[in-house]
Amino acid sequence: MNAELRWLQTSDFRTWEEFVAAERDPLDCSGWFQCGVCVPGDLSMEDFQFCAATASALAALKQEYRRLRFLLVDEFTREEIERQLHDFLARASGSSWHEIRGQLRERMYSEYESTKA
């Protein structure tokens, strides 16, 4: 069993168009995202929230959130965030959703837990 992405949206902007239009340093940035993840063929889905960050942005994040779970990206663009998320989900596998969820929670927060780090 593997994890599959159903949807992805930015938490910091109302639309992806606003996200793309925002002026920022793509090599020193971070932001929050939400996504729906499931097992292929399953009708049920679980929502997750995660912080995507470049290596340069991590120092400031770690000062604010000591135990932050994050997805490291080379560049803070929609394409790179989607690519890294798909790669991460492709590596999450197990014999049950419980096993897969445990792996996902290494980098993301489930809808059933607090995002306070």
Q: What are the SSEs and their pairings?
A:
Blueprint: E1 4-10, H1 16-21, E2 30-38, E3 46-53, H2 58-64, E4 70-72, H3 78-91, H4 97-104, E5 109-110
Parallel strand pairs: 3-4
Antiparallel strand pairs: 1-2, 2-3, 3-5
Can you walk me through this structure?
- By secondary structure, the chain is an alpha+beta fold.
- It has one domain.
- The protein has helices at 16-21, 58-64, 78-91, 97-104, and strands spanning 4-10, 30-38, 46-53, 70-72, 109-110.
- Strands 1, 2, 3, 4 and 5 form a five-stranded mixed beta sheet that branches.
- The protein is globular and about 40 Å long.
- The model has no long low-confidence stretch (mean pLDDT 91).
Which characteristics define this entry?
single chain; 117 residues; alpha+beta; 5-stranded mixed beta sheet; 4 helices; 5 strands; globular
Mean pLDDT: 91
SSE order: EHEEHEHHE
What's the end-to-end separation, in Å?
29 Å
Let me know the largest β-sheet.
Answer: 5 strands, mixed
Structure summarized in a few sentences:
The chain is α+β, with helices and mostly antiparallel strands and 117 residues long.
